[in-house]
């Protein structure tokens, strides 16, 4: 299904109370639309449009196939497009036999909704028309209407995304800043985790050094001295100066077993 020729002017939105006024550089806009690059896209049916602006909101002003959802389908294709220096734009669209195209065609046949163009004013670059329920330019419908309304279905940073110009650079910048902030928070959390791990390591090491009994699942308890090297030196000095009893009979052996030295050596402390 193809629309008749649709003509509207960038200086006349056809609205009084709602929507957003646009102040385009009319001559530059006409040069962009009439440029060989834009006209080549129209000629080869490459200037696709969508049902609503959400595909451009999510995937950029010029969405391509193979997106993550795998279900991005165009609704229409622009088959004619011209512009004059006074802001007059004439275009024609063909609704595609896709599900979004059928929905847009039914709305158009029911005299509901209209066309809304996607323009990057900073370049400038013209990306085509989408079919929306309430276009900012009420004159860009292709049929006569008796009502005057506009809806800001998508609003990001104060920019109505169903308006004629979609500028997504601020959104991209905000997204990049959000990613940087997230990475910075993750870095800080990592540093805190490492700091806590060092504290835990020091506490465990201190516990192992000062504890007198170390237990493991595979062996019996092992008694150790708090300062084993110093204890060994003390034992050596004690042996050098100690008066050891002579073992001449069983009684002397029993006496020896009760001495402090023998007890310490037997128990290991």
Short description:
With 269 residues, the protein is α+β, with helices and mostly antiparallel strands. The chain is built from 8 helices and 10 strands.
CA-to-CA gap between the ends?
99 Å
| Average pLDDT number | 75
Q: Tell the overall outline.
A: rod-shaped
In what range is the share of β-strand residues? 15-25%
Order of neighbouring strands in the sheet with most strands:
1-4-3-2
Instruction: Supply Rg.
Output: 42 Å
Number of domains: 2
- Total number of beta strands: 10
The H/E string reads EHHEHEEHEEEEHEEHHH
Helix content: 25-40%
Oligomer: single chain
Low-pLDDT segments: 144-169, 211-224
- Give the helix tally: 8
Structural class: alpha+beta
Biggest sheet character: 4 strands, antiparallel
Q: How would you characterize this protein structure?
A:
This protein has 269 residues and is α+β, with helices and mostly antiparallel strands. It is 39% helix and 19% strand. It has eight helices and ten strands. The protein has helices at residues 26-34, 36-43, 54-59, 99-109, 169-210, 228-241, 250-257, 260-267; strands at residues 6-9, 48-49, 76-83, 88-95, 114-120, 125-132, 155-156, 159-160, 213-216, 219-223. The strands form four sheets. It has a four-stranded antiparallel sheet with strand order 1-4-3-2. Strands 5-6 form a two-stranded antiparallel ribbon. It starts with 5 loop residues before the first strand and ends with a helix. Mean pLDDT is 75; it is low at 144-169 and 211-224.
